[in-house]
Amino acid sequence: MKSTLSILLLVLVSIVAQAQKTDKRLSAILSPMLAAHHGQAGVYVHNLKTGSTVAINADSVFPTASMIKMTILVGIFNKIAKGELQYRQMLTYRDSLLYAGEDLLGSFKDSQQIALDRAMMLMLTMSDNTASLWLQGLAGGGVQINQWLQDNGFEHTRVNSRTAGREANRKEFGWGQTSPREMAHLMEMIYKGEVSSKAASERMYRNLTRNYWDTEGLLMVPPNIRTACKNGAVDESRSEVMMVNAPHGDYVYCIITKNNADQRWTRENEAWQLLRNVGAALWHYYEPKSKWKPDPGVGQF
Fold first, then answer.
1. CA torsion sign, 199 to 161 to 180 to 150?
2. Distance between CA atoms of 257 and 64, rounded to whole angstroms?
3. What is the bridge-based pairing of β-strands 40-47 and 113-115?
4. Backbone angles phi, psi at 147, to 5 degrees
5. CB neighbours (10 Å) of residue 158?
6. For burial by CB atoms within 10 Å, which of 25, 47, 238, 265 has the most?
7. Closest residue by Cα to residue 178 from 152, 159, 162
8. Which residues pair with 45 in a beta bridge?
């Protein structure tokens, strides 16, 4: 009986401590933005300096779209750590690897070579799908990547595409699935040097700072501020996970949408507007003295 009461007390203390870390003022700013979205939206925010958080639908399961490529990145570095791959080893491209679309790697000729580190650059920076699926296979496939995720406490984040036993999940969520909290946590683990090794984590983080797709939340942060980001987009879902190395303290967040009514591929898309609005709100909340605003003309580029 004493043991049961002790456990209940510990759980209660944990819940209270977690509640005390919730930034209610920031939550009140973000909640109406997400509630107004025509679809479903979730966000998780963590200020690494203060420990405060905001969690709105943060544990709901959403499609990852291209954000799943962060888990493939982890899978590749785990293979490198085991000596099964080398960071700059040469790979031979084959036409059978082509994933139809506008990928740069897909324009390669059969038997043309590319270094592993450059293929990873294409996966992250350009979100090249041909490179990503190739790398997923080199990482051991979804089964091995998912095993690492499970072993490291990720309950919802999984690779679905080309992964045995996950066909039903792929039908519902596409390439991968996650929650805002877990995707933000993965970015934070990489930033803190907690994935594979400190050196590997630093290389992963540096690679994530080079995102070509920077017209949503990234656009709401001054260009002289270091950021690491991976975003995802399919017709019914738009998402973004980002670490901001802000002057007054680092913060990480992930916002994901699904079942979006607006599925346009134009700048005016409602979900992309939401990503920009949330990104701007976070920057000005954590950096209230910043007078910086994106030039209205930036949107044309």
1. negative
2. 10
3. unpaired
4. -65, -40
5. 23
6. 238
7. 159
8. 54, 253
